[in-house]
Amino acid sequence: MATPQLDLKKPAEPAADAKAEVKEEKLSSDALTKYQTASAILGDVLKKFIPTVVEGKSVLDLCNEGDALIVQQASTVYTSKKALIPKGIAFPTSLSLNNVVSHFSPMPSDKDVPVLKDGDVVKVMMGVHIDGYASVHAETLVVGAGEGKKVEGVKADALKAAWEASQVAMRSIKPSTKNFVITDIVQQISKDHACIPVEGMLSCTHSQNVTDGAKRVILNPSPEQRRDHPTETFEEGEVWGVDVLVVTGADGKAKTEESRTTIYKRDPKVNYQLKMQTSRKVFSEVQKKAGAFPFTLRVLEDEKRARMGVQEAVQHALLRPYDVVHTAPGTFVTEFFFTLALLPAGPLLLSPVPVWYSPEKVNSDKVIADEELKGLLGKKLRDDKKKKKKGGDAPTTAQ
C-alpha cells in the first residue's frame, strides 16, 4: 500500500480518523501533523535519493547529497514567520556496506572512502524532523540488483529475513504487548531464514526532540543483556522507532571501529563546563547547528578542530558517539527501520515505505515457520474503516 502523498508546500493534516483518535496526553494532533509532514518530506527525499545509489558512486558524495536533499525539502514547509519552527535533519545520511552494521558517514579527509560496487549490500539511513518530531527510516538495497536481476544466496535470505521480521514486528506492536515479544519475533524469523539478529541493537520510544527514549526493545540479547534489560509494555499514544538488523550466519556479535565514528548526539541530561577553548567553540557550534538531534562532523566548519573538540565532550558524556560497528568479515547485514505511532485504531506508520525493496527482487526459499506469524504478513497494518463498512478489499502484504 503506497503512502498517501502529502502536499509539501503546507503542513500535513492528519487523516480524519487519526486526528479523532489521538491521545492528547501523549500525542497531540499538532504533534501528529508534524510527524506526518516529516514523513512526507522524507518520502520525497528517498524517491529522489535511492535511485542514485548505484555502482561507481562514492559513499561520501551520497551522504552529502542525501543531507542536502533533506535540508532543501524541509525548507519548503512552515515558511511563514508565524509558523517558523526548527526543521531539518533528524539523522544524517549514512550508508553502511556489507558487514558494516550502521552509522557509516565518512569525512572528506578519509583516505579509504568506499565506492559502491556491484553486489554491495547497502543500508541507507536518514531522518527528518519538524519542530523536533522526527521521522527516521532505514532500508536495504543491493547494488546492481532489481532490474531483471534478483538478489541470490545468503544476501537474499538476510534481506527477506529483515523485511519479514520488520513487517511482522510492525503488526505486533500493540498496547499491552511486552517488548520481549518483539525481541523473540525477530529472533525466530531470522532463524527461519538461516540468519541471526545483530546482538544488542536497540529500538526506542520517540517524542519531541528525543529519538532515544527510555523504553526500548533489544535484539538478540546476550544472557546478561536479557537479564539486565527491563521488561516494558507498549502503550497507546507512544511513538516508536524500530530498528530491525539481521546478519548472515550464526554469530550476531558486532565490533566497534572508533576511528570511523563521525556521528554524535548531544546528551541533554549531562552538564559539564568544558575546559578547552576549542571544545567550547565546537560544542557551541554543535548546539546551533544540530540541537537535540544526531549530527555528522561534516556539518562543522573546521574538521581538524571538530575532531579535537568532540573528544573532551565525549569523555564527559556531553556528546554520545554513534559508533560504526561491523560483524565478522564475509557476512552481510540487512536493515529496515520504521517510525510507528500506537493509536486506538491500530499502529500508524510515521515513516515512508521502502523505495527499493519488493519481494519480487529477492530469490530466497526461506519462509516463516510459525503460521500465526506468517499470517501477519498478509494483514493490513490498520483497518480501513470506510472500506470495512463497504466490504473492503482483501488484505495485502504491503505496509
From TrEMBL:
InterPro entries: Creatinase/aminopeptidase-like, PA2G4/ARX1, Pept_M24, WH-like_DNA-bd_sf, WH_DNA-bd_sf. CDD domains: PA2G4-like. Residues 34-194 form the Peptidase M24 domain. Residues 1-22, 380-399 are annotated as: Disordered. Residues 7-22 have a biased composition (Basic and acidic residues). Pfam families: Peptidase_M24 (PF00557). It comes from the Eukaryota. Belongs to the peptidase M24 family. This is Peptidase M24 domain-containing protein.
